């Protein structure tokens, strides 16, 4: 009787695993915009990680304003971390149209965050003496190339108000 019960139990377990699969459900990020998207996931476990690129550039008037104030370099900070510099080599490079991310003449940073599908960040433009010319906050979204233009108007308004 014990053998029969053991055989029936083994058959039921084997049958349920073979027919119904005994695989554990796969947990992971199910947002296709995330850098760690898991297409095998059965359940979203809120582990999604995101990134976007941010390119900083100046308009011609900001380039002239900084140069005429004898600024030799502008460092860009994102959330308190320096991400790159632009230099006054006979004048800063200024342009009206947004450059592509990773354009060699401008400063690009990659921002990483988790869980939420957007991120807010603070950025600053600081010269070689540590003088703060401008700061602001922005919001970015996954896989975006966000272009941020530093203009003479923004600099002047910031300087008047701070």
Q: Can you give a write-up of this model?
A:
The protein is α/β, with parallel strands linked by helices and 162 residues long. The chain has two domains: 2-44, no CATH class; 49-161, Immunoglobulin-like. The chain is 23% helix and 36% strand. The protein contains three helices and nine strands; from the N terminus they run H-E-E-E-H-E-E-E-E-E-E-H. The protein has helices at residues 2-20, 60-68, 152-161; strands at residues 27-28, 43-44, 49-58, 73-78, 81-87, 107-114, 119-127, 132-140, 145-150. Strand 4 and strand 5 form a beta hairpin. It starts with a helix and ends with a helix.
Second rung of CATH, namely the architecture of the largest domain: Sandwich
How many structural domains can be distinguished in the coordinates? 2
Please tell me what the overall shape is. elongated
Please state roughly what percent of the residues sit in beta strands, choosing from under 5%, 5-15%, 15-25%, 25-35%, 35-45% or over 45%.
Answer: 35-45%
Q: Give the SSE order as H and E letters.
A: HEEEHEEEEEEH
Rg is 27 Å
> How do the strands line up in the largest sheet?
5-4-7-8
